[in-house]
């Protein structure tokens, strides 16, 4: 099984569902001489691991016996594995499927030091159980730990009942509502309200993709009417004001229901300021910037080469320079709380579906731009 290559490389046990796992196989590893970094500080320390569990962290741990695998980390940082809270592996979207699956995506993540991620289950025709079955199947080739959030794309009594089953029987306790992608994944305010109330009653976390999907459709038509069909039309059609509006609306509806809210991929100062204001007033709102929004700007979308420009098409769009620095500052001051990648990769052939109409370019970028 391909997962074993990575488990072996990591010195871990056998690869069960959800990753390599410790396995109690007697593996002993000593990482020596590095600078160990945790959330609160960095220090010179060795790390001793038994059966996949860190049992000692202190300077100068003696090697002891020959059965300990010693890794020399002199001059290197030793950090906990990263957790990516936002990915889309093998996701069916905009008429195609993201090219990184639960094996190639895991290989890339592990190579970069990410050891766990949370993907979004997309229901099948609104059915949550069918969606989960499909994602469990996709994840059979996994090589690292993973978990699932779940999108809610329809509303009826069955969906409401299934949400409870997801929380109580499958450990899925975060549900995403797309306020954009009109005609496919988008939900109405009515559905969002029902969903927020259900999340509250289950103690689950509601998440939103915050853009005004109706206004985006209008903005897209405006661009087409103006003859703007290239990737730059993507950013022009869905400006920050539409992200700010939806973020504010979701925050206020969550306040009305009195339930916490997680805003995924915060890409603009407009959205970030809505989150900052709500938090100042004591509301429980979590804001997640993503790597592309923190480090890139929208100039790429104006590249005359379609293959280059289309690589940067995602939603909400990568914004004008300035938003990225403001998001970085908000992250360092705690207004925004964690970073995802929104890893959602399409190759140049897939991106070319929209070579004469930006509306058909599959939305999504590589999480490590
Ligand atoms: N972000 C993006 O453009 N694609 C992935 C789907 C989503 O998160 O909206
Ligand atoms: Zn996403």
Automatic annotation (TrEMBL):
Keywords: Hydrolase, Metal-binding, Signal. It comes from the Eukaryota. Carbamylation allows a single lysine to coordinate two divalent metal cations. The keyword Metal-binding applies. It is an enzyme of class 3 (hydrolase). Residues 77-348 form the Amidohydrolase-related domain. GO terms for cellular component: cytosol. Its cofactor is Zn(2+). The keyword Hydrolase applies. GO terms for molecular function: dihydropyrimidinase activity; metal ion binding. CDD domains: D-HYD. It catalyses: 5,6-dihydrouracil + H2O = 3-(carbamoylamino)propanoate + H(+). Its EC number is 3.5.2.2. GO terms for biological process: pyrimidine nucleobase catabolic process. The modification N6-carboxylysine is found at residue 176. Belongs to the metallo-dependent hydrolases superfamily. Hydantoinase/dihydropyrimidinase family. This is dihydropyrimidinase. It comes from Triticum turgidum subsp. durum.
């Amino acid at each position: 099984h391909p997962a074993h290559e990575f488990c072996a490389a990591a010195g871990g046990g056998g690869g069960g569902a959800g990753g390599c796992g410790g396995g109690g196989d007697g593996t002993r590893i000593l990482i020596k001489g590095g600078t160990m970094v945790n959330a609160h500080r960095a220090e010179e320390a060795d790390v001793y691991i038994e059966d996949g569990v860190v049992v000692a962290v202190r300077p100068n741990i003696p090697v002891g016996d020959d059965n300990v695998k010693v890794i020399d980390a002199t001059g290197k940082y030793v950090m906990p594995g990263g957790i990516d809270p936002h990915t889309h592996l093998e996701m069916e979207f905009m008429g195609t499927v993201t090219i990184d699956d639960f094996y190639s995506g895991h290989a890339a993540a592990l190579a970069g030091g990410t050891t766990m991620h949370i993907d979004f289950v997309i229901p099948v025709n609104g059915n949550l159980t069918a969606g989960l079955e499909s994602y469990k199947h996709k994840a059979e080739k996994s090589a690292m730990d993973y978990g699932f959030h779940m999108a809610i794309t329809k509303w009826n009594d069955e969906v409401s009942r299934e949400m409870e089953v997801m929380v109580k029987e499958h450990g899925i306790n975060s549900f995403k509502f797309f306020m954009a992608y009109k005609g496919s994944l988008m939900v109405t305010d009515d559905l969002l309200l029902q969903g927020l109330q259900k999340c509250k009653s289950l103690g689950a976390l509601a998440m939103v993709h915050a853009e005004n999907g109706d206004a985006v459709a209008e903005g897209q038509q405006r661009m087409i009417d103006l003859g703007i069909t290239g990737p730059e039309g993507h950013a022009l059609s869905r400006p920050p004001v539409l992200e700010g509006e939806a973020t504010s609306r979701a925050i206020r509806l969550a306040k009305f229901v009195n339930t916490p809210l997680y805003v995924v991929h915060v890409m603009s100062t407009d959205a970030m300021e809505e989150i900052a204001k709500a938090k100042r007033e004591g509301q429980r709102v979590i804001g997640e910037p993503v790597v592309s929004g923190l480090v890139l700007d929208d100039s790429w979308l104006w590249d005359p080469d379609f293959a280059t420009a289309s690589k940067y098409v995602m939603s909400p769009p990568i914004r004008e320079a300035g938003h990225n620095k403001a998001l970085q500052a908000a992250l360092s001051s705690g207004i925004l709380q964690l970073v995802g990648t929104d890893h959602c990769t399409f190759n140049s052939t897939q991106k070319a579906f929209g070579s004469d109409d930006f509306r058909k370019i599959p939305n999504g970028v590589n999480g490590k731009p």
